[in-house]
Amino acid sequence: MAKMWAGRTDGATEQLADDFNSSIGFDSRMYREDITGSMAHAMMLGATGIISKAEADTLIQGLEQILADIQSGALAVDMSCEDIHMFVEEVLTARLGEVGKKLHTARSRNDQVALDLRMYLRSQIDGMITALKAFLGVLTEQADAHKTAVMPGYTHLQRAQPIFFGHHLMAYAMMLLRDIDRLQDCRKRMNLSPIGCCALAGTTYATDRRLEAKALGFDDICLNSLDGVSDRDFVVELLADLSLLMMHLSRFAEEIILWSSWEFKFIELSDAYTTGSSIMPQKKESRH
């Protein structure tokens, strides 16, 4: 497949260099975000008169069909492409001809990558928050059902004070509430659109960045183009938030393992969620 910069140099790049530069092995999972972002970009180009309304409609229809074909399995992502952005544009141009090349007007892969990543992680956060709220609902229901059930409270694995089982479960509810709050806060800072920042210094085209941002569900735009294409603070912030979340979930899972052991025998897990031993048939194990 021809490189996006074909004509810049006569020499062919080494396979090792191509492999090093390629990101399609992991950014192909963002095909929905890439195509959705491109549809909004085509809409903006048509609305501002940078391209004709008819051309914008043609681009959007072509992108909708590519999305449908990938989702149905009729179109497989070509892993020889450098990234998902080049793959989508290659297919679009192959199907639509010259009008397909107009999609990349007034944007760079720099702001396109930043846009896709923000949209993808935003969607992942929404899914995680939904799952955490469901887990929180189960915890509070069980806490209410066992609010007068007495159990030993431990410090350093030594029995310390009597507590209610419901009170113990609500400790995890507090942790999850903080986790949800952190994720929502991270999402708020993430939800700014970098599209229109282009490579680093914007574009001379009279684009409407806020129109495109609104169409994609962003709260606002990145105000500085250099920062907009280079900022990955939100990725590090999300990783930190998820580290805390996983610590809480691991703590809960370890407690389940402890409570289901012979030494405690507070609970017994369903066979549907346990395993056994290849040498010790009496064992019933819970693993995470």
Explain this structure to me?
The chain is mostly helical and 288 residues long. It has 10 helices and 4 strands. The strands form 2 sheets. Strands 1-2 form a two-stranded antiparallel ribbon. The chain has a two-stranded parallel ribbon with strand order 3-4. Strand 1 (150-155) and strand 2 form a beta hairpin. Helix 3 (31-47) packs antiparallel against helix 4 (53-72), helix 4 (53-72) packs across helix 5 (84-96) and helix 7 packs antiparallel against helix 10. The radius of gyration is 26 Å and the shape is elongated. The chain starts with 14 loop residues before the first helix and ends in a 29-residue tail after the last helix. The mean pLDDT is 93.
Major β-sheet strand ordering: 1-2
For the termini, the CA-CA separation is 44 Å
Beta-strand content estimate? 5-15%
* Largest sheet, strands/sense/barrel: 2 strands, antiparallel
Give the low-confidence spans.
Answer: none
Structural class: mainly alpha
In a few lines, what is going on in this structure?
The chain has 288 residues and is mainly alpha-helical.
Distinctive features:
288 residues; mainly alpha; two-stranded antiparallel sheet; two-stranded parallel ribbon; 4 strands
